[in-house]
Write a structure and sequence with these properties.
Elements lengths: L12 E7 L13 E5 L5 H21 L7 E3 L3 E9 L2 E8 L10 H19 L2 H7 L4 H15 L3 E2 L2 E2 L21 H18 L5 E6 L2 E5 L3 H15 L1 H6 L24 H9 L22 E3 L5 E3 L3 H4 L8 E3 L6 E9 L2 E8 L6 H15 L1 H14 L12 E6 L4 E4 L2 H4 L4 H23 L8 E6 L5 E7 L2 E7 L6 H15 L8
Antiparallel strand pairs: 1-2, 1-5, 3-4, 4-5, 6-7, 8-9, 8-14, 10-11, 12-13, 13-14, 15-16, 15-19, 17-18, 18-19
Length: 511
């Protein structure tokens, strides 16, 4: 039996990861469980959830062998599926209830699963590779448990886990937020990138530059840029270092306590022992070096301006700070991650592990080169960007609440969170439901082979007389809320045209 849970009957979320290639023989069913939240639910409950999920996956493949199952809506629950790797599934089961805040967009929940897996790949490598390394499953279960629980700590409010809901309708996961800069500042940034490459001394060096929580420059692929950018916003930016909090939600921006992971990890050793305590590689009989890059409070700024962390101590088996390493998605290449910070400017540069013979000597040398040769240029760039920065409300457009998404470049821009909170619940709920309809239409277009060729416009009059609008064209998306009571559809359409012409170079003008 699993450990009893006082909150099992009231738990509104279950999150599991399982491997369809494991546990196919009678008596070995537990082998397929790689992660389950809440971990202290009885095994009978865990196996019931996974068994149902496996049955739904198998059943839907009969009718759609090429398109993986994404969501099943039951009377009391929504089942959200994501095939993270071949035959390795992540499933989220969300209870439908009457909570006024419990209105979710399914694609938003799938984006959460995708982000979680992308982070895991970046820091640890693939789940399948760890299973191949240790088929018994103890290694991967330990890694997944700590990694996912640290990730979920960002969604913790008191002792309650709060998922992104309708109030996040004007946000898009899996994108970066760019800082708009002038030509002169852009040339300075470009010069800084070139000097960084010279200091590192490797043509394979990549860099990412941020100001506040906005991207200024990146030499990485779009997907790698998204992963590193979003991790930097969560744990490396000046705001993240000073508050120990993430800013994923409009409602809870900056309210996560640095020690919030505590209630989520009541007794991690005993939870893990439940899974494989009697096995040869159990927590009691085997010591695993667990990487915890998402744990709060483990990054700090050193006196020399470089950011340091102790999260990689276990990986190196050392008592001193080590240079973190990550895996790039595009090249599957392992890179040293170095981060330098001056005021609101954060510079992240990546050095191929294969190009470094002695990291203990070469990495400190590279850092010293940057301090001696690039520090003044970094100060100059930061000052130039700060003079041109309009503050948190720089991208506010009076009268509009909007979200712009460029799928091709994985970029988004939206109304500032403080402005979004001025919208009524009715407007945000209507927008969330409109986005669900758009998600469905995009999915149909994808499987019909239309891709970005299909233009789409949807206008909805909400109960509070606000206009909720979506326009999609050529891989770009615009979502907008206009809370102008008693105005006509013609007025709303004209407002979108004016916004498109002035701020989007006419990209969303259908005339």
């Amino acid at each position: 039996m699993g450990m009893p849970s006082a909150n099992a009957t009231s738990e509104t979320l279950k999150l599991c990861i399982f491997d369809l290639r494991r546990g196919q023989n009678e008596g070995q069913e537990l082998d397929k469980i790689l992660f389950f939240y809440p971990a202290d639910l009885p095994f009978s409950t865990q196996l019931s959830v996974i068994g149902l999920s496996e049955g739904l996956i198998t059943f839907t493949r009969i009718f759609s062998p090429e398109a993986a199952c994404e969501v099943i809506e039951a009377e009391g629950h929504s089942h959200v599926f994501y095939e993270a790797e071949p035959d390795i599934w992540m499933v989220m089961v969300v209870e439908k209830n009457k909570d006024s805040e419990a209105i979710w967009r399914i694609d938003g929940l799938r984006s959460l699963l995708k982000e979680l897996h992308s982070f895991f790949l970046m820091f640890t490598g693939s789940i399948r590779a760890l299973l191949d390394k240790e088929p018994s499953g103890g290694l991967i279960r330990t890694h997944l448990y700590y990694f996912i629980m640290d990730y979920l700590s960002d969604f913790l409010s008191g002792k309650k886990l709060q998922l992104p809901n309708f109030r996040d309708s004007l946000k898009e996961r899996g994108t970066v937020h760019m800082l708009t800069i002038g030509r002169e500042a852009a040339l300075e940034v470009q010069s800084l990138v070139k000097v960084l490459e010279l200091c590192v001394g490797s043509s394979q060096c990549s860099s990412l530059i941020m100001y506040q929580d906005l991207l200024v420059s990146s030499t990485l692929s779009p997907e790698d840029t998204v992963n590193i950018f979003n991790y930097a916003v969560l744990r490396l930016s000046p705001r993240a270092l000073s508050s120990g909090a993430s800013s994923w939600s409009y409602l809870r921006k900056g309210n996560t306590a640095p020690g919030a992971s505590g209630p989520m990890l009541p007794n991690s050793s005993s939870v893990l022992e439940v899974y494989y305590g009697s096995q040869e590689n159990s927590v009691g009989g085997h010591s695993y070096n667990v990487l915890r890059p998402l744990k709060h409070g483990h990054w700090s700024r050193g006196n020399d301006g470089f950011l340091v962390t102790d999260s990689w101590e276990a990986e190196a088996g050392s008592l001193v700070h080590t240079c973190p390493t990550i895996w790039l998605h595009k090249t599957d290449e392992r890179m040293y991650l170095c981060a330098y910070q001056h005021r609101s400017l954060t510079i992240i540069f990546l050095i191929p592990v294969a190009s470094v013979l002695n990291a203990d000597q070469e990495i400190p040398f590279v850092k010293q080169q940057i301090i001696e040769n690039v520090a003044l240029k970094i100060i100059k760039v930061e000052e130039k960007l700060s003079r041109g920065w309009g503050g948190e409300n720089a991208y506010h457009v009076s009268g509009y609440r909007y979200l712009l998404v460029d799928d091709d470049r994985c970029i988004s821009r939206a109304s500032p969170p403080g402005k979004v909170t001025t919208l009524t619940k009715e407007s945000l709920v209507a927008l969330s439901r409109l986005r669900e309809e758009v998600d469905l239409e995009k999915s149909r277009a994808k499987w019909d082979g239309l891709g970005h060729e299909k233009d789409l416009e949807v206008c909805i009059r909400a109960k509070n007389n606000a206009w909720v609008i979506a326009r999609l064209t050529r891989g770009k998306e615009l979502y907008m809320v206009l809370e102008k009571a008693n105005e006509t559809l013609l007025y709303a359409s004209d407002a979108v045209e004016k916004f498109s012409d002035r701020y989007c170079n006419g990209a969303f003008s259908f005339d």
